[in-house]
Design a protein that fits this description.
With about 325 residues, the chain is an all-alpha fold. It is built from 15 helices and no strands.
Length: about 325
Amino acid sequence: MALGKFLVKRLLQGVFVVWGVVTVMFTLRAVSPGDPANLIVGEAADPHLREQVREQYGLNEPIYVQYADYLQGIVVGDFGYSFQSGRQVEAMVIERVPATLELAIAATIIAILIAVPLGVISASRRNEPADYGATMFSLLGISTPNFWLGLMLILLLAVQLGLFPTGRRPVGLAEALTALATTGYATGLVVWLKHIILPAITLGTYFTALITRLTRSGMLDELGKPYVDATEAKGLPAALIRYKHVLRNTMIPIVTVLGLQLGTLIGGAVITETVFSWPGLGDRLIQALNARDWPLMQGIIVFIGISFVLINIVVDALYASLDPRVIDE
């Protein structure tokens, strides 16, 4: 099977996944108690006004008509209007995407920079103090709740030591880079870095521990194979063997987990964004939940579902390039 057909197959499967997410969210909205019109105009509003709101938002239509209209709107990129603010949902989602992507990518970079070398060192020095230390770090990282870790980092590094800010970030990455390019001053970039370090560490800790364990186990499997003995017999340096040959063959499961976890980071940043007042999708989702703003909640969840699908397709493409045999499976 050619790579193109392989990716088309994955894309079609992703369409069904997104459709399932949309259907589940719409069903939850339909069966949830309360009249959405009351959320918009209030329970004490005039009945005639409430009826006008139902008609405006299509809430007076049969449920199957509402479902069909919602699917049609999603196909053309129209997710409706927020009950609370009256703004277009897609605009409210898109404006928060950069902040969430910044946080997820920063957490992923931190995880990769720490986890991969740590996993290699742990596997290369099996049953030595370095291996025990890496194992202990992994256990702590997997076991520590990120909301607790975030609060502890704020109390210790921000409140007690004053090394990092505790408030909402005043500038985004795009704004900081634009200012750097136009004025030559890196002040905005430094401010952005100070604000993102603690949230990125909090969000990426579990990810770091997971990749460390995965790298270690994969390296141990590869180090016991005959080709490693053959390369050692040729006199190649140990570092070259570990990082060029052994680590490369270990990267397939790591790339898979990286892609899946990036989607998890995007969807799972809700708690971290709330703790650090990070202006991303998670923070907006909590606001929508508190206000029972169903169109906004649906839009955010559907966007996260689409992100998962697209990331998985990219992972499949990378997987196929690393191991072409998966195309024929």
